[in-house]
Amino acid sequence: MNTLMSNRLFRIGAITALVGWTPLLAVVLLELLGVLRGSNPIGLGLLFFVTFWPAVICMGLGAFRVWRARGQTGDA
């Protein structure tokens, strides 16, 4: 995991996921717990929609780069 977080592209994807996904997931969790009632998180859903694929692609490319670099150096 340390190797993944040292990759800049993976870190950008993880930060994008954190910023884009956490608000909606927090509202959903609070709704399930009964703290919020009848909220309408359309803006948070749009934020999730806009940040989902860029975050997944950045983290995937970053993980692939780490995996490829690990294979070239011979680390197992």
Description:
The protein is mainly α. The chain has 3 helices and no strands. The chain has helices at residues 2-6, 8-33, 42-73. α2 packs antiparallel against α3.
Oligomer: single chain
Query: Percent of residues in helical segments?
Result: over 70%
SSE string = HHH
The major beta sheet can be summarized as:
none
What's the alpha carbon Rg, rounded to whole Å? 17 Å
The backbone outline, from C-alpha atoms, is elongated
> How much of the sequence is in beta strands?
under 5%
Mean pLDDT: 91
Count of helical segments?
3
Q: Supply the number of structural domains.
A: 1
Give the strand tally.
Answer: 0
Point out poorly predicted stretches.
Answer: none
Structural class: mainly alpha
From the N-terminal CA to the C-terminal CA, the straight-line distance is: 14 Å
How is the secondary structure organized here?
Elements: H1 2-6, H2 8-33, H3 42-73
Helix pairs in contact: 2-3
Please outline what is shown here.
By secondary structure, the protein is an all-alpha fold.
Essential attributes:
0% strand, mainly alpha, 76 residues, elongated
